[in-house]
Amino acid sequence: MDFSYSYPDAAEEDVKRYERSFRKLPPAHKALLSHYPLKFQRLRRCISVNSYFIFNMVQAFEPPLDMSDDIDVCEDSLLEDAPNDHSSSVERNGCSCQSTSTSRKMCCSKPDQDYNVEDSNMTQVTRMEQQELQCDGFCGSNNESHPHALLHSKEMDRCDRNPVNDSNENVSSSPHGWLDPLLQLNVPLVDVDKVRCIIRNIVRDWAAEGQKERDQCYKPILEELDSLFPNRSRESAPACLVPGAGLGRLALEISCLGFISQGNEFSYYMMICSSFILNHTQIAGEWTIYPWIHSNLNSVSDSDQLRPVSIPDIHPASAGITEGFSMCGGDFIEVYSDPSQVGVWDAVVTCFFIDTAHNIVEYIEIISKILKEGGVWINLGPLLYHFADIYGQEDDMSIELSLEDVKRVALHFGFQLEKERTIETTYTTNPKSMMQNHYYAAFWTMRKNSTAAEKHMPS
Ligand SMILES: C[S@@+](CC[C@H](N)C(=O)[O-])C[C@H]1O[C@@H](n2cnc3c(N)ncnc32)[C@H](O)[C@@H]1O
């Protein structure tokens, strides 16, 4: 059996499945759902529009690009909107969160320097400096996997035949000419699920619909940073690292707050998407996507499911970034355990990140090392350990500490707890869904105070 798909082909398979079920209905039942064929048609148009966006995104980058070992793009979608029968092919978070690459090495720009690329296996670095946003491209790779494979020729053929409707059902001409022979590649189904997850993350970070979630998650962090560094100035801006930065909105907001902000991310999918939005956006609302089409579950109405979302909600280049903003591609552990990172950062912000660790103790140890003495670690998130349900090879590892133990370990590594509370929030949740997963996320501020920590050392 062929387990290779592309985003549009996999979505088309879903629509065909809905159609098959519809055809099996007795005529009387079919008559009650006479609007269904139109819904299927609308779904296909939405898939075309999403595919067109994805096509433009991957077109912005030059091959070759190795996405074969991409991991861990989504936290949640586990329960809500379990999309379709493909979900059985991925693990419990509804999105693949596994198989860490160990081949990646550091590729990073220090906040006060131009970026440099140090290894050909590396992902990419993007930087935004002096209000002038540029894409700095990718480093080479040695694998056949290709982002253009997110799309596939069959669907593109169909797109060329079918007009694309906008949200108001106005028919516009189809995007002829964007089919490229390069697209005639397939990707594992698990990667199609990653793409669907990314689409949900786009709403979280870059759509007006995501504002509520950003207010729940990012706002408390931004307020805390603001109050902890009251005397900062653009001339001597404090340096803040955001590991597991996802699509980069939090890192951008921190930059706009007057910090030299660096996001770190090791998913190629996330990096491609964040780079596209940060560096290639011409105007706010440039793109329309249909993020919620991939699930029929818990919909109040078809129009909720098929509603368009405009992205991005802001023009990043006009947001007011502080010089030195960068996105650093690579594994947090590999990049930041480099000796050059010791004592470099005034603040480390982790949002829905620390539970992505195989060994959370190692994350905490690195965060402590890279902070300056007196630097702060602000964290918000649950402890939904990403590798907890992975029963694979013998060498798989997942250390799943309780919150109490996390705090005890942090104390050992020189942290003093300054503030702590619980924040109720969702993560990439469809705000109109009948099912809303809420986290009671831990939010804390800890300060690195090594001398105080020595007192807590076991003798
Ligand atoms: C649950 S998402 C959170 C994203 C973002 N912070 C937010 O709040 O929307 C976790 C992110 O961490 C990234 N990630 C996981 N392990 C990582 C690692 N070892 N190094 C860098 N990034 C990692 C994932 O690719 C993913 O984008």
Describe the structure.
This protein is α/β, with parallel strands linked by helices. It has a single domain (75-144, 189-454), classed as Vaccinia Virus protein VP39 (Rossmann fold, 3-Layer(aba) Sandwich). 32% of the residues lie in helices and 18% in strands. It has 13 helices and 17 strands. It has helices at residues 7-23, 27-32, 36-59, 153-161, 189-206, 211-228, 249-256, 268-280, 302-305, 332-336, 360-370, 403-412, 450-454; strands at 4-5, 107-108, 116-117, 125-129, 132-134, 164-165, 171-172, 187-188, 239-243, 260-265, 287-289, 309-311, 325-329, 345-351, 371-381, 415-425, 439-448. The protein has a nine-stranded mixed beta sheet, sandwiched between helices. It has a two-stranded antiparallel sheet with strand order 1-8. The protein has a two-stranded antiparallel ribbon with strand order 2-3. A hairpin with a 5-residue loop joins strand 6 (164-165) and strand 7. Helix 1 runs antiparallel to helix 3 and helix 5 packs parallel to helix 8. It is globular, with a radius of gyration of 22 Å. Bound molecules: S-adenosylmethionine. S-adenosylmethionine binds next to strand 10 and helix 10.
